[in-house]
Amino acid sequence: MKKSIIFIKKDYYTYDGKKYDFNEFREVSGLLSSKIKVIILQEELFVSHFENSVRRHELCNFVDSKIRNDFPQNGDILYDFEKKRNIISIYSIKGSKRVEKIVEKAINIEIKPIQFVIRDVLMKMVKDNDRNFRALIKYDTYYYYVSFRNGSYYDGFISENKCVVEKNLLKKDNLEEIYVDDNTFDIISDNNKFKAKKVNIGEFIDENIYEKQKFCSREVF
What is the DSSP letter of 58? Predict the structure, then answer.
């Protein structure tokens, strides 16, 4: 069964190219399949890294304890995690309340921040041995800066404001090379501190969203 794909933004969501208020969801709920893919846009993705050799069968307990004690609990945060070697990465992003309105009748749910879509696409485009990289991509109306170490998300920021993006980039260290697309190339090329590596990522992001769907969730993304 084909998945229904919904883009969640700060103040509204889009489905099948149309914009809806969150209070209007019942108008389209009958059009959705029982399999729903949610892409979260316009939100900061946060990550905390922990060095720990906890065994796989104890991993969920470790993560649950960290989330309860070390992360904000306001009812609107989604969480997920991954472990590579002895590094456990716990991700958090706002949007739980908006997602709940969308997926209450769904059987199969996939929730994915746009930052992870960008990661998945870039991992296939960069050199196999280059798992530490940075990128500045514009998708829809927002700029997304993302940084990866050993293939895992390390940090990032978002903004609609080009000047804010430029100021935030200047605060970053070790940005000799950065991947950019057509919409962000001028930001980097105007600053001699950076070396831009241009990639045509836009169409591949859409392809990843609509065709190569992978990721699962609980109350997580």
Answer: H
